[in-house]
Amino acid sequence: MALYPEYPLISDRLRLRPFTRGDVDAVYTYRSRDDVARYLFDVALSREECALAVQQRIGQVALEKDGDKIILAVELLSTGSLIGEVSLTWHSADARQGEIGWIFNPDYQGEGYATEAARALLDLAFGPGDIHRVSARCDVRNGSSWRLMERLGMRREAHFREHAIFKGEWDQEFVYAILRREWLSR
Ligand SMILES: CC(C)(COP(=O)(O)OP(=O)(O)OC[C@H]1O[C@@H](n2cnc3c(N)ncnc32)[C@H](O)[C@@H]1OP(=O)(O)O)[C@@H](O)C(=O)NCCC(=O)NCCS
């Protein structure tokens, strides 16, 4: 089933909305940082690379076929500041599998905003999206990310050791997941 959500998604403190051209500076403030990029597949981005990333994200608002992504800007309702982004990737339309991800500006970390935004995206995935299972993965050293997965009620399903090269070294990766019925019964 394709998913064409109605935006914005609103939670207690946040607005999740499609990216716009005006978001480049806000995205640059966090995507240009080495500490933010440390466990991402990307390196820290230049302003031009941020502009390109934002341009791509503007069209990433619906799931129509395998591999499509929804990537949303996360804004504080109180100020309108863009504080980060969350993503939902459709891996298998047949088996209704999704993958969730997050990147937040360090100035706004430690407040539960990423958890709140991820919950809003999981409500979309398991509600209107009718996705069956949502997974997430991270480097095992990325404690902020896997603690977030556990706060969401996701289960650690895998600990891969040296199954890929990450930034020039053997990786170690956790995979977490939650099923639709588990999310709905929480
Ligand atoms: C991963 C990332 C999004 C987590 O951000 P975060 O701010 O730690 O996550 P949350 O917004 O859910 O906040 C949780 C923290 O705030 C605290 N907190 C404060 N108020 C809270 C609330 N109302 N609800 C939940 N947590 C709250 C929690 O105790 C927790 O702290 P802890 O991790 O020290 O235990 C962030 O570290 C990040 O963007 N990293 C760089 C990019 C990256 O690595 N992305 C993931 C790639 S796999």
UniProtKB/TrEMBL annotation:
Molecular function in Gene Ontology: acyltransferase activity, transferring groups other than amino-acyl groups
Domain N-acetyltransferase: 14-181
Domain of life: Bacteria
Pfam families: Acetyltransf_3
InterPro entries, A to Z: Acyl_CoA_acyltransferase, GNAT_dom, N-acetyltransferase
Keywords: Transferase
The protein's name: Acetyltransferase
Organism: Devosia epidermidihirudinis
Biological classification of the source: Bacteria, Pseudomonadati, Pseudomonadota, Alphaproteobacteria, Hyphomicrobiales
